[in-house]
Specification:
Elements: H1 3-16, E1 18-19, E2 22-23, H2 34-46, E3 50-52, E4 61-63, H3 71-78, E5 83-84, H4 86-92, E6 103-108, H5 110-125, H6 129-134, E7 147-148, E8 151-158, E9 164-166, E10 173-175, H7 177-186, H8 194-204, H9 209-219, H10 222-235, H11 241-245, E11 268-269, E12 274-275
Helix pairs in contact: 4-7, 7-9
Amino acid sequence: MTRYTLGVEIYRLYKEKIYEGQILEGLKKNQASKSDLLRVINHLEASGILQEHENFRGKAYRYMSGKVEHAEEDACIIDPFCYVSHLSAMSYHGLTNRLPTHLVLSSPDPKNWSILAGKQMSKDLGSHLPEYESEGLPLLTNTKFSKIGRTNIQRVHSLRLGAFKSVKNRSVRVSTIGRTFLDMLQRPQLCGGMRHVIEVFKEHAGTYLMPIVYEVDQYGGAIDKVRAGYLIDELLGMGNETTESWLQFASRGGSRKLDPSEEYFPKWSEKWCLSLNMDLAEFL
């Protein structure tokens, strides 16, 4: 639980004076102050109900009697706009047997994060937000972190976040299967490298063809469509009308490469006008 979430809950208790259907007759004040929040936090800690999170002191707390939360759960609580992505999402979806050395999270860039935070606080507090702020109660802030417990964190910031889903019975968000495949094409270096991406496409693209094609078609750029078109149509032989429509983005005379991390090589797909700058013999 973040300090902001706790602040909102305490503020609501003072306003509504009801907790789990019971009227709080001893609560006389109509609004909580910063000192009221501190008193409640100290009481909850002294009672063994809450414990300050060792990685987020002064910003988040753990329930002492609750289940053990993993790094991805803590991260999604601390940053309410992030989600598990790239190789970490591939692992969640069962697309890779590689064990990620760090947890990859996608999160809005700082400017958009602040905009989303403002909207969330307005949603949580409505017309009471100015009063809440004036009392010095905690606001929803963008906390920087690179490690939770023993887990190293890599945060990927983007102007446009992709689709994600909430995991049932857990405080975790993860990129959808279609978005995960699009992420592989856009940033293969965060997904085990282009060779591993092709391995995953070869093994799993047939199972998830519809969401992959939809995501690339709706949200992929020109180079994403060309790379996906080559892999799905030419390499794997699973092309359809939608992938054929991506041929309009193939551009002759350009320097587009299958693997963005490698140098251009004068061997290419005639159909997709794409430099095949890596050894594909094992995939043919």
